[in-house]
Design brief:
This protein has helices spanning 12-24, 30-35, 44-56, 78-94, 98-108, 113-130, and strands at 2-4, 7-9, 60-64, 70-74. It has 132 residues and is of the alpha+beta class. The N and C termini lie far apart (42 Å).
């Protein structure tokens, strides 16, 4: 994990493992995690190391399973992590400005007319709901 300011960010390997944990919605063991990776699957020891690091950093909780088995589950939801990450990007690259952040993506992405219209509808809908 890389530290940005006071926040922790996930490496690509950690994020891939967190995606598996978020998708499961229940505590799972390392064998179940490995089984959910696409081929070629990483080694058991690799996943075991990554999940233990995630637990030490506070992203993953651990509970006892059967015998020596440990079950792992996310302590942070995917939406909470995304929200934190987007806030960090907005603060770092756009001075905290939502309009600058949105403007950048509107200019950089190749969006269809339909996508732009959907974004406009969403913005109007959100605007109307906050001014009630």
């Amino acid at each position: 994990m890389q530290k940005k300011g006071n926040k922790l960010t996930l490496t690509r390997a950690e994020l891939q493992l967190m995606e598996i944990l978020w998708k499961n919605g229940k505590a799972i063991d390392v064998h179940e995690m490995v089984a959910q990776y696409p081929e070629p699957q990483p080694a058991y020891t690799t996943i075991s190391t990554v999940v233990r690091l995630l637990a030490m950093k506070g992203f993953v909780g651990v509970k006892k399973g059967f015998g020596k088995q440990h079950l792992y589950y996310p302590l942070l939801s995917k939406s909470e992590y995304i929200s934190q990450s987007v806030s960090d990007v907005k603060a770092t690259f756009f001075g905290g400005s939502v309009s600058s952040f949105v403007s950048f993506f509107l200019q950089e992405e190749q969006m269809s007319k339909e996508e732009l219209e959907e974004i406009a509808r969403l913005a109007l809908s959100l605007s109307a709901s906050t001014h009630c």
